[in-house]
Amino acid sequence: MEKQAMACKVDEALEIIVGKWKPIILLLLFEHKVMRFNELKRAIPGITQKMLTTQLRELEEEDIVHREIYPQVPPKVEYSITEYGKSIESVLEVMHDWSVLHLEHKKKLQNE
Amino acid sequence: MEKQAMACKVDEALEIIVGKWKPIILLLLFEHKVMRFNELKRAIPGITQKMLTTQLRELEEEDIVHREIYPQVPPKVEYSITEYGKSIESVLEVMHDWSVLHLEHKKKLQNE
DNA sequence: CAGTATCCAACTAGATACTG
DNA sequence: CAGTATCTAGTTGGATACTG
Q1: How do residues B48-85 score in pLDDT, each as one tens digit?
Q2: Where are the domains of chain B?
């Protein structure tokens, strides 16, 4: 595979998984399976409603997160990972594992 | 492992691999082993000198890219992946593979 | 050749207020 | 409860000019 084309595709993946709050949103949904809007908001310290909405809409757009609306008052909306979205978990794990490696490496460098 | 701590670490990894031009820089260096500044610049259409410098400095800071300066006129500077930096290749590959999967999935969705 | 320095436009994200 | 709307401060990145 040509490297330039590959970089192009990597960028696309990054745009989806990145976004300041996406990893934490995804990890929470992987853990809890189903979460309501305010439940997510409480679980993510520092996020604003606007940001949470935006990031969830983007993940929904990519068919990674499913949004279930219950037509009732007060409104109830539940978020979950789609069947397809589950494919992203291994990517998050690889990134996490490398991060741990990286932290250790930096610590080692500082001790020299 | 607690999910919140994990998200934190994933973010750190993302900050390093992301940056608009980092994937392409890294992939080029993985392919060519050693590249000079202008060689990289020519290989990356649209990048400015400022951006290339910034991104390279950040990768150098993280001990992922090595910068070899030859004290001569005109100056010659060569960039390469550090021994440690090689650990990032598999992360890029996983992200790339998922991107390909994702493109296929989106195409399938549009045909429905 | 391999950068630095400066300026500015565009986008991002936070705070805040409002609503079905 | 689960958002939307608006405004604004801060950051990012591009264009351009200059340099050892």
Answers
A1: 999 999 999 999 999 999 999 999 999 999 999 999 99
A2: 5-111
pLDDT tens string A2-51: 667 777 778 878 888 888 899 999 999 999 999 999 999 999 999 999 99
Chain B, nearest residue to A10 by Cα? B96
The answer to whether A91 touches B94, Cβ cutoff 8 Å, is yes
Contact flag, residue A50 CB and nucleic strand C, below 7 A: yes
Closest CA to A55 of A89, A81, A22, A80: A22
Q: How far is A7 from chain B (nearest CA, A)?
A: 5
| B11 residue type, one letter | D
Pick the CATH number of A5-111 from 1.25.40.10, 1.10.10.10, 3.20.20.70, 1.10.8.100: 1.10.10.10
With contacts defined as CB-CB under 8 Å, which chain B residues touch A13? 95-96, 98-99, 102
The pTM (predicted TM-score) of the whole model is 0.92
